[in-house]
Automatic annotation (TrEMBL):
Protein localization: Membrane
Gene Ontology MF term list: monosaccharide transmembrane transporter activity; symporter activity
Designated name of the protein: Major facilitator superfamily (MFS) profile domain-containing protein
Any one GO CC term of the record: membrane
Residue ranges annotated for the Major facilitator superfamily (MFS) profile domain, each copy included: 29-475
Keywords, in A-Z order: Membrane, Sugar transport, Symport, Transmembrane, Transmembrane helix, Transport
The keyword Transport belongs to this UniProt entry's keyword annotation: yes
């Protein structure tokens, strides 16, 4: 391993000296900022308009005609690349825009990206609600994607940096909680607007403007994070904000860690190049694998196309939306479970237990469809109830594990100098895989039929093993001291270069991070 390297920002363990508690300032900041998550979730759930007849008849007439053909294979009725593009273009646009959001987030602050995202959401909502042709509809989705790119880049960072270390996991899950609330809200709205013909779909697509307006106003009114202020040279203002959000003037230890991290961050002119260095290898691997695995659980396929999926299984239009609403409610409830347990049980236990339950659920659904459902028949009532029940169990497991933690873990592991670049990579990878799955799922469903669930179960097995072997427990570790974590991990300590830190902290030091309950 290379030696003689300068300390990576934070030079001394000070976690035990951190002061502060949950304050009104943190609560308000987290709630308003997490509205960005609700918009992300709403845009996922609102894709359910793709089963409404007036919507299909106006924009996708070929799918509308095929939908009512009794002779057509049930798995293939919605296999249309243009219809898939309506969903997937949102995420391709988001992937590109999140890379542009990184320098904005770093050079102008987290609030700047939140405001940019809110404005983009407002424009996209207006275009979609007023769409008269497919071009306008797709352009609106592109603008919503820009909003997702900026919002998903900045909001998780904002929440991680505002939250006290001992509450960071739960508070950072406000993003995922808001996402699940957005999905549930979209399902509820779709269920109601399907009865408003022929313009109910316009209401569904346009209502995203409400949280977008709140996000924009909130971004203007919220304080900037102290980490960002210090990084940009506004040190005294950064300390004042830190004292405000911690509810105490005794913030010397945390302020010193931020100052040391900022000192290094300001020497890094090319964070995307820096993130490729060996000392950032563990974080880079997590920034790529965690969001990719989150999508490969198959969750987005269920969320995007739940009404389509349920209709393909023989549910009526109303019942398919009702089933989507039920699964969205379960996802919302399970996220609350995760918030309540993540800082007590830790990230690893939730990810591994959730992974095992999701594998079982995917296999059971595949088995039911293989035995009881043919391409030209409908499921019996009993089997339909069983499928919805098992999918709800799948949602429950995802909601307490990979749903929130797929965002939380990458947002909390990067050093300040690579944090905005790391978050951009996380979001870009997530949106890239989301785009691929969204565009390909209807064709995969037509080709694989029931085996599509086995396909996703295999990926969940891989990601569960990945967490067991490669992910250290980050529970309770101050965000500016994550660098100490990797040098103590059984695998990553062999990858990391030597880091001569003060007071014996380093790969060979005797003082393990036991004070903050770090283990493999």
């Amino acid at each position: 391993m290379a030696g003689g390297m300068a300390p990576l920002g934070v030079k001394k363990e000070r976690a035990a000296e951190y002061k502060g508690q949950m304050t009104l300032a943190v609560a308000m900041a987290c709630v308003v900022a997490a509205i960005g998550g609700s918009i992300f979730g709403y845009d996922i759930g609102i894709s359910g308009v793709n089963t409404m007849d007036p919507f299909l008849e106006r924009f996708f007439p070929a799918v509308f005609r095929r939908k009512n053909l009794v002779s057509l294979n049930n798995y293939c009725k919605y296999d249309n690349q243009a219809l898939s593009a309506f969903t997937s273009i949102l995420y391709l646009s988001g992937q590109v825009s999140t890379l542009a959001a990184a320098p904005v987030t770093r050079n102008y602050g987290r609030r700047a990206s939140i405001i940019c995202g809110g404005i983009s959401f407002l424009i996209g909502a207006a275009l979609n609600a007023a769409a008269v042709n497919l071009t306008t509809l797709i352009l609106g989705r592109v603008m919503l994607g820009v909003g997702i790119g900026f919002g998903n880049q900045a909001v998780p960072l904002y929440l991680s940096e505002m939250a006290p270390a001992h509450l960071r996991g739960g508070l950072n899950m406000m993003f995922q909680l808001a996402t699940t609330l957005g999905i549930f809200s979209a399902n509820m709205i779709n269920y109601g607007t399907q009865k408003i013909k022929p313009w109910g779909w316009r209401l569904s697509l346009g209502l995203v403007a409400a949280p977008a307006l709140l996000m924009t106003v909130g971004g203007i009114l919220l304080p900037e994070t102290p980490n960002s202020l210090i990084e940009r040279g506004r040190v005294e203002e950064g300390r004042r904000v830190l004292e405000l959000i911690r509810g105490t003037a005794d913030v010397d230890a945390e302020f010193t860690d931020m100052a040391e991290a900022s000192e290094l961050a300001n020497t890094i002119k090319h964070p995307f190049r820096n993130i490729l260095e060996r000392r950032n290898r563990p974080q880079l691997v997590m920034a790529v694998c965690m969001p990719a695995f989150q999508v490969l659980t198959g969750i987005n396929s269920i969320l995007f196309y739940a009404p389509v999926l349920f209709q393909s299984m023989g549910f009526g239009a109303s019942w398919s939306l009702y089933s989507s609403m039920l699964t969205g409610a379960v996802l919302l409830f399970s996220t609350l479970i995760s918030i309540a347990t993540v800082d007590r049980l830790g990230r690893r236990k939730l990810l591994i237990s959730g992974g095992i339950q999701m594998i079982v659920c995917q296999v059971i659904v595949a088995a039911i469809l293989a035995v009881k459902f043919d391409a030209d028949k409908h499921l019996s009532r009993g089997c339909s109830i069983a499928v919805v029940f098992v999918i709800c169990l799948f949602m429950l497991a995802f909601g307490w594990s990979w749903g929130p933690l797929g965002w939380t873990v990458p947002s909390e592991i990067f050093a300040l100098e690579t944090r905005s670049a790391g978050q951009s990579i996380t979001v870009a990878v997530n949106l890239f895989f989301t785009f691929i799955i969204a565009q390909a799922f209807l064709s995969l469903l037509c080709a694989f039929k029931f085996a599509i669930f086995i396909f996703f179960a295999a990926w969940i097995a891989v990601m569960t093993a990945f967490v067991y072997v490669f992910l250290p427990e980050t529970k309770g570790v101050p965000i500016e001291q994550m660098v100490l974590l990797w040098s103590k991990h059984g695998f990553w300590k062999n990858v990391m270069p030597d880091m001569p830190l003060e007071d014996g902290w380093g790969p060979g030091g005797d003082r393990a991070l036991t004070d903050i309950n770090i283990h493999k």
